[in-house]
């Protein structure tokens, strides 16, 4: 019986991205999980249910990208996950939101008063979301491996390094890489990283 690898996409992505990893890892049963959660508290229920359906009572590796990685760190801590393999993970959501507030020239007092503020760059700011994030920092209950692009504009390398140290996670940094791994060179780097971990675990 093949070992299962469950894939969780990032914002704007889809479960179809799992096809790339299925071709890359023919010895695994790769399943892409399509989710609708837009907030971590929504993901906690949805991801748990999706995992149970896809893992079919067994354990699985989980490969998660960007916001999907952030949701997985909150939602799958009690599931039989063999390893979390995180691509460009969001690990400091508070810093990301505060940075978005600064870019939109929105103060905490304004956000508290209005609750939700739309921004010119298309990402709404939410007081409820910010408060939830502050009350629920990401925890480290699972073995974690991280792939990060040196030029990631969403999460600073220092934040990812701090998270990796706290979790005892392995951290691989691609020189010149971006948050979105999409060029031929970036995808080759990602593929080699993933196959290296899989071969090491086998």
Keywords:
202 residues, alpha/beta, 2 domains, two-stranded antiparallel ribbon
Can you walk me through this structure?
By secondary structure, the protein is of the alpha/beta class. It has 2 domains: 3-90 and 140-201, 3-Layer(aba) Sandwich (Rossmann fold), CATH 3.40.50; 92-137, no CATH class. It contains 8 helices and 8 strands, in the order βαβαβαβααββαβαβα. It has helices spanning 18-24, 40-55, 67-75, 93-103, 108-114, 127-135, 157-167, 184-201; strands at residues 3-8, 28-33, 60-65, 81-87, 116-117, 125-126, 144-149, 170-174. It has a 6-stranded parallel β-sheet, sandwiched between helices. A two-stranded antiparallel ribbon has the order 5-6. The longest helix is centred in the C-terminal third of the chain and has 18 residues, at 184-201.
What's this model, at a glance?
It contains 8 helices and 8 strands, in the order βαβαβαβααββαβαβα.
Furnish the topology, listing elements before pairings.
Elements: E1 3-8, H1 18-24, E2 28-33, H2 40-55, E3 60-65, H3 67-75, E4 81-87, H4 93-103, H5 108-114, E5 116-117, E6 125-126, H6 127-135, E7 144-149, H7 157-167, E8 170-174, H8 184-201
Parallel strand pairs: 1-2, 1-3, 3-4, 4-7, 7-8
Antiparallel strand pairs: 5-6
Helix pairs in contact: 2-3
